[in-house]
Write a structure and sequence with these properties.
The protein is an alpha+beta fold. The chain has seven helices and seven strands; from the N terminus they run βββααβαβββαααα. It is 38% helix and 16% strand. Helix 1 (33-47) crosses helix 2 (49-55) and helix 6 crosses helix 7 (154-160). Strands 1-2-3 form a three-stranded antiparallel sheet, sandwiched between helices. A two-stranded parallel sheet has the order 4-7. Strand 2 and strand 3 form a beta hairpin. The radius of gyration is 16 Å and the shape is globular.
Length: 176
């Protein structure tokens, strides 16, 4: 998660697909188990369990209380079976989830620490997500997370409503 101003409840819940460096960003009203579980359930419902399990085989979270419901991440409740695994990083070991931390740096270019998230909307956050995923990466041999993800998981891109942005049109300015 990425937090804004300390006295502001809203936060950004991020998910990272390691092999493509693709990042989902969700605006949540509060950084707690309920709001995280709501987004995970939204993903299961939107993607369907089969695609959810294919894309999100492994989760790596920090030790925050917001991730204290591993069964929400790991279970298909309808068929009562395990479909994913949630693991936790060691405390103060952000290097164990380096990829998402690198992507968080893109978010911080737009929303520096201490920025209030109170005026953010889902549309603003989605536009930021789409722009970040359109940035070519040296670590991907000049490819973009969007391009690699649509090759590997085209149904995922469609169901999540992700938009393609030409790399020359990428902006990390939420006013555009």
């Amino acid at each position: 998660t990425v937090i804004g101003k300390r006295n502001n409840n809203k936060a950004l819940f991020t998910m990272y697909i390691r092999e493509t460096h693709f990042m989902l960003i969700f605006l949540i009203d509060k950084k707690d188990v309920k709001h995280i579980d709501d987004k995970i359930n939204y993903l299961k419902n939107t993607l369907g369990i089969k695609l959810y399990a294919k894309v999100f085989r492994i989760f790596l979270g920090d030790n925050g209380t917001k991730f204290f419901d591993p069964l929400c991440f790991e279970r298909d409740y309808d068929k009562n079976r395990k479909i994913s695994n949630l693991f936790y990083c060691k405390p103060y070991a952000s290097y164990q989830k380096h990829g998402i931390e690198v992507n968080h740096e893109y978010i911080r270019r737009v929303f520096p620490k201490g920025t209030s998230f109170s005026n953010l909307t889902d549309e603003i956050v989605k536009r930021l997500q789409d722009n970040i995923n359109a940035i070519p990466r040296d670590s991907l041999n000049g490819e973009t997370p969007y391009n690699l993800t649509i090759e590997k998981y085209p149904d995922f891109i469609e169901k999540m409503g992700c938009k393609y942005i030409e790399p020359d049109n990428v902006t990390l300015n939420i006013d555009n």
